[in-house]
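Quick illustration, no need to memorize.
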Amino acid sequence: SALADATLTLALGAVWLTLPRRHRESPRFAVIGYGKLGGKELGYESDLDLIFLYDDDDATAAETYAMFARRLTTWLSTQTSSGKLFEIDLRLRPDGNAGLLVSPFAAFSAYQRNEGEGKHKHGAWPWEHQALTRARFSAGDGAIGARFEAERRTILMQSRDAERLRADVLAMRTRMLEGHPNPTALFDVKHDRGGMIDIEFIVQYLVLRHAREHAVLLRNAGNIALLQMAGELKLIDSSLAREVADAYRTFRSIQHRLRLNGAERARVARDGVTREAAAVTQLWASVF
């Protein structure tokens, strides 16, 4: 993840210099990392889940930063004789693939706070706040990055109805499960029940449910550390938290190994991860 941050920083500087109509020496532009990059858990062949923000009143800013974002994405993801740097996924931006490639910071803030207008009137969906639990400033303008971190903190500390939040998280988990069916007898360490996504959803729910009272949960420390924090705060059983943290380590190790060997999916014999999956299932039942 640190290597990806450094690569993004270098790419930003190099790509900006290629723009023919730069209106300032340095762009007022920030890259926000989500997912594995945001959680500092980037693995082998992981995509970079990114959104782009800018804060610039120049009349040409929207056009310039859209061109900048397109060119930056191309530089990062183009296949060359030496391979490519990263696969880039920009679907987590406001309104997903239907939204602008790069958002003004004020519009992003209004969207996250459900204060949008026009096409953004509905604001962020609950799953977008789940995603925000694993987001952080990755590269670019530090002032925008600091504003993003403050905005993230404000959004995640909002008061939420516990039952509605629970229902929203469960509904999204069902949608994801339906979108990744596993027709084999093997255990998919990422997508199957008792796997990595169950762990990640538990952590996201705990952050959204309890960060208002326990601001330590806002630390972008990764799933293992957040599980341990939740255990220490008595939000979940501390012993079970350690078991699930160990399960997450095991699943990640399996995923890394299989990806290095060229596997498209991380699937293994179920009897090899029975204990780990059982611990995750037990914690899931206790939380939801």
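The longest helix spans residues 238-260.
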